[in-house]
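Co-fold these.
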Amino acid sequence: EPEVTQTPSHQVTQMGQEVILRCVPISNHLYFYWYRQILGQKVEFLVSFYNNEISEKSEIFDDQFSVERPDGSNFTLKIRSTKLEDSAMYFCASKGANTGELFFGEGSRLTVL
Amino acid sequence: GNSVTQMEGPVTLSEEAFLTINCTYTATGYPSLFWYVQYPGEGLQLLLKATKADDKGSNKGFEATYRKETTSFHLEKGSVQVSDSAVYFCALSPPGVVGGGSNYKLTFGKGTLLTVNP
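Predicted complex below.
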């Protein structure tokens, strides 16, 4: 069964460092998303991506965040200069053209020290 | 704006017990409603969904009924198993975008950890 895969599963970084979280969506999907969950809080929408551009982003997704689909298979989330409050579980998701179901990856846990 | 509130966990039950996890929502119009489940070490998986009022979503013995009058979508299972131990998330999507669209996004609740003991 096709699945969304994410790497790394856990990353520890120092405040101010750049982090790239990687995702391989399901191959024939067209819509891509990042969500995050700070420990003990809700899963929050960060950004959606379609046709090689951002289609919507939340207030959380400020200038420190960027997304890219560099090679037609990977979908990356970059945090330019991490802050303590960026510590969270980051979920990638993808969706096909005519279905309402999002397929999520296992998540990447980011710990900023 | 849209929001989802689900019961605080953790919930601990014995095998074969009855499960209810409450979920209420705030949204304009008729959103679509979902329950996602996250088993240990895995990603979020869609458990069931309902797209209009009075619809009942069901899967793996779990059920939830879309109640517009009470803005609720409570998850129930008559007899839980140890393998049901997981985190359960209630979520909604805005009306009219279930089938597609790049503006499709989910609003989640906090999640409820369920532990089922043998």
